[in-house]
Design brief:
Length: about 400
């Protein structure tokens, strides 16, 4: 496998980049570029039928098919086709994506390692990996994943980077012009989501510097623009957990509040909140009864909001069956008598597969579970002093463009 070229974040006058990562090995599924005769037949078919056929193919094949003929290229590059392909991928996938960030003291270079784990019946357990060296940047932190795009926080002359691992495209997101200073560590709670009304990815920037109140802005990928959000009194000094969970395009946070009590220490409690793109404000999601004062963890399980609690030596996993309805919380799993530290990191859709962190002989290890059944241990996630951050999520391929629409 050829070594990928480095990506210079300080390059000027570029809007969208091919980051040069090597393509993963061929999968077990075979997709052959059509002959000229077959291509001519396809071009004579109605566009709707062509879209029905092409939207079922993986991104790698669609990128190749764009060279077959101009009508296919225009069709595959159209925003409507990209939306349809993303919708189909989101409802029919069985993959986990794992992103590792490593730093080399010798070369002073960051590298991103994107691992794709395929759990469908044809490619059960198949793993592919993309390595992307990053130059002139001290740190890259995966922040959030949504609908085919990964949001990265970078310690560089700008703050955010958007990356599509499927197309190998990358885009620098310019900082808001009304901000004069950003602290790289202060944006860790920022998240990437998707506005289905506006049909655009959006970044919710949450910046907290020292003892100043929270500063919140929203970036719209479609218009390549930032909008400042008025912060209400409740959220000025609220503490947003840096582990963001995106459910059906909506970013969710655990928000920590302190309720002052006379003659007593401040009372700490947690709320689940999401950002409403229509109203540009945070909205509270009800928790299961009796758990408001525990420190839980959020997950996305098959498009449903999921929450995990660690109580009295056990782990409870609850799922909200009907979004926004408190009474619809259902306890799906309970693991008791836990001697070693255990908690899920993420869930793949449709197949009940989860990535779980365990404590083993004083060292943390990462294991694939199918329900409660322990499966393969992922050796590449073993203790490594060079790994500075990890991020895992249910992976969906996407053709989504990183360029703003031209009106």
């Amino acid at each position: 496998m050829a070594k990928p070229t480095g990506f210079d974040f300080l390059a000027e006058s570029h809007k969208e980049y091919d980051i040069g990562a090597t393509f993963p090995p061929q999968s077990k599924e075979l997709y052959v570029i059509p002959s000229k005769l077959e291509a001519n037949i396809m071009t004579e078919l109605p566009e709707e039928i062509c879209m029905e056929i092409l939207e079922r193919l993986p991104v790698k094949s669609l990128i190749r098919f764009k060279t077959v003929c101009k009508p296919w290229k225009y069709l595959i590059n159209s925003p409507d086709f990209m939306e349809r392909h993303a919708d189909r991928s989101a409802t029919n996938h069985s993959k986990l994506g794992i992103v590792l960030e490593k730093y080399s003291e010798a070369t002073h270079e960051c590298s991103l390692f994107f691992h794709e784990l395929n759990f469908n019946p044809i490619s059960l357990g198949e793993t592919t990996m993309i390595e992307q060296p990053i130059t002139r940047c001290k740190e890259v932190k995966p922040l959030s994943w949504c609908r085919g795009l990964l949001l990265l926080g970078v310690k560089c002359h700008h703050t955010f980077l958007l990356w599509n691992p499927s197309t190998r495209k990358c885009k620098e997101v310019r900082d808001p012009t009304y901000h004069c200073y950003f602290n790289h560590e202060a944006i860790s709670a920022s998240a990437l989501g998707y506005d289905f009304t506006f049909k655009s990815h959006k970044i919710v920037l949450i910046s907290k510097i020292d003892r100043n109140p929270n500063d919140i802005s929203v970036y719209n990928l479609k218009t390549n623009s930032w909008t400042s959000v008025e912060v209400d009194k409740d959220h000025e000094y609220a503490s947003f957990d840096s582990s963001t969970t995106v459910v059906n395009g909506i970013p969710h946070w655990l928000v920590c509040y302190s309720r002052f009590q006379v003659r007593k220490a401040d009372e700490i409690y947690y709320e689940i909140e999401y950002f409403n793109y229509d109203m540009n404000k945070f909205v509270v999601v009800p928790q299961p009864c009796g758990y408001d004062y525990d420190s839980p963890e959020l997950f996305d399980m098959e498009g449903r909001l999921c929450i995990g609690y660690h109580t009295c030596g056990k782990v409870e996993i609850w799922v909200m069956m009907k979004y926004g309805v408190k009474e619809s919380w259902s306890r799906q799993m309970i693991f008791g008598d836990i001697i070693i530290p255990w908690y899920p990191i993420c869930f793949a859709k449709d197949i009940g597969v989860s990535l779980v962190a365990e404590g083993k002989y004083g060292v943390r290890c990462y294991v694939i579970y199918n329900g409660k059944e322990r499966g393969t241990e992922l050796k590449f996630l073993a203790a490594d002093s060079k790994i500075r951050s990890k991020n895992a999520f249910a992976f969906v391929e996407s053709l989504i463009s990183l360029e703003p629409e031209r009106y």
